[in-house]
Each structure stands twice: as C-alpha cells, then as structure tokens.
Amino acid sequence: MVDSLVIIPTYNEKENIEKIIRKVFSLSIPFDVLVVDDGSPDGTANIVKILQQEYPHRLSIEERVGKLGLGTAYIHGFRWALQRHYAHIFEMDADFSHNPEDLIRLRQACLEGADMAIGSRYIKGVNVVNWPMSRVLMSYFASAYVRLIMRIPVQDATAGFVCFSRKVLEKISLDKIKFIGYAFQIEMKFTAIQYGFKIVEVPIIFTDRTEGVSKMSTRIFREAFFGVIQLKVGSWFKKYN
After folding, report:
1. Do the beta carbons of residue 114 and residue 200 sit within 8 Å?
2. 221 in a domain, yes or no?
3. I need a surface site. Which of 177, 194, 214, 239 has the fewest CB within 10 A?
4. Domain limits at 213?
5. Residue 47's closest CA among 74, 19, 66?
6. Does any domain span residue 180?
7. In terms of Cα–Cα distance, which of 157, 226, 143, 212 is closest to 188?
8. pLDDT in tens, 43-94
9. For the chain, how many structural domains are there in total?
10. Does 229 fall in a domain?
C-alpha cells in the first residue's frame, strides 16, 4: 500500500501537469498524486482525467469552482488525505520549480524523525535558478523578516515544498488556518512549531518555471508581509496543546 500522497494545486498548468505527474510516478519509491484544480479554463483538469485511465488507483483529482487560493487548495487536499491511509502528505508545485526527485529525500527526513520536512532554498546559501536578482532578494529577505518577527528557526519560511507527517495535520485545526497565499506557508510552519513538532530543512535547488505563468502577485506578497505580524500577535492569546 502506498503511504505517501503528493498534493499538486493547479490553475492553468496544461503545459506542465502531464509531465510532472509522469515524473512522480516514475520515481523509485511509489507516491500517489492528488491534483486540486481551481476550475482551470485551459483544460488542466481534462488532462488529469485522461491520465487517470492510465493510473486509475494512483491519480486523483478534486475540482473546485473558481480560483480560491493556494492555501484553501492545500487544506482541501489535507482533508482528503486524512480521510485515507496516508502517513506522509506532501505539498508540491506543478511547474517543476520543485524537483520531484527530492520527494524521496523529504520522505526520508520524516522517516528519520522529522515531523515536517521542508525543501529549503536557503539552508545552504541561496539555491535558486532562473530568478531575477530582485526576486531572489525579495524571497531571501522575506524569510529573514519572518525569522526576526516570529522567532522561528526556519531559513526558508515561505517554502512550498513540504512533507507533513500525518500527525501534524491531525493536530493542527485546519479550519482555523486563515491565510490563502504565501502567508499560508508561514502559518503552517509557525503553527507546527508552536505545537512542538520537529521541523527539518532539506537543501534543494529551486528552479523557476520555464512554462506557464507565475501566480505571484503584489496582493499575495502583501498578505504575507502583514500576515506575519497578525500571526505573531495572535499567538500571544492562543494556547497550543
């Protein structure tokens, strides 16, 4: 029985989705895949449905109406996973910015004792390919800002390549996670730390997408910037047990 599920949220990823799914299924360790598609008008969901005929017990899709946000897509996927048998539940982008080969390393980190393994761009210097310097600096200093405000020992706080042990997602009250953009990634890490879970960062090389369009926006960045302050202040009045 496959014990690991990779959740891939999609919105207009027709150029990438078949290739990323086939790559995951080609790995030496088996992973199931759940695609959470937010009504992609480019036909992403239809591509996944065709592939389901080839991988009937390994590939699933959940379709939602409208572009509802990254965080809500992952929470939808987390709930779907918790209703099933998976011991390790992953977040991964569809655009190959995360190397599917690294899924094995993240899973291994959890097998060796981590409750949450993060694919980190910054644990060993700056390992980012094809980003303009302005975006590298923005991302790097955003993580530094998070560490300063929230006092958490995570070098890549906005990372979206993560393996959760099942018990982390069972403990966190998913209905109380309030952010939907990159602040969602920060909130999940901060909450896991507050509950006392062990987080390990695994160094990866992050490669910017070569096909499709980035979903980054100033609104998403603004949510992350101010969300950090909201999370920190809110933690003063919340009990974690």
Report:
1. yes
2. yes
3. 239
4. 4-235
5. 19
6. yes
7. 157
8. 999 999 999 999 999 999 999 998 888 999 999 999 999 999 999 999 999 9
9. 1
10. yes
Residues 135-191 have pLDDT tens digits of: 667 777 777 887 788 788 899 988 999 999 999 999 999 998 988 877 899 999 999
For residue 168, what are its two tokens?
Answer: 């982390």
In a domain, 240, yes or no: no
**Hey, what are 214's tokens?**
């980035």
DSSP state of 125: S
Q: Determine the Cα–Cα distance for residues 5 and 77; give it in Å rounded to an integer.
A: 10
- b/e sequence 142-174, b meaning 16+ C-beta within 10 Å: bbeebeebbebebbbbbbbbbbbbbebbebbee
Distance from C-alpha of 42 to C-alpha of 44, rounded to nearest angstrom: 6
- By the 8 A CB rule, do 18 and 47 touch? yes
For residue range 30-46, list pLDDT tens digits in order. 999 999 999 999 999 99
| Burial class of residue 192, CB neighbours in 10 A (0-12, 13-18, 19+) | buried
* CATH number, domain with residue 59: 3.90.550.10
Question: Does residue 103 come out as left (phi exceeding 0), alpha (psi in the -120 to 50 range) or beta?
Answer: alpha
Amino acid occupying residue 182: Y
The answer for residues whose C-beta is within 8 angstroms of residue 219's C-beta and 6 or more apart is: 181
Count the Cβ atoms, other than its own, within 10 Å of residue 236: 6
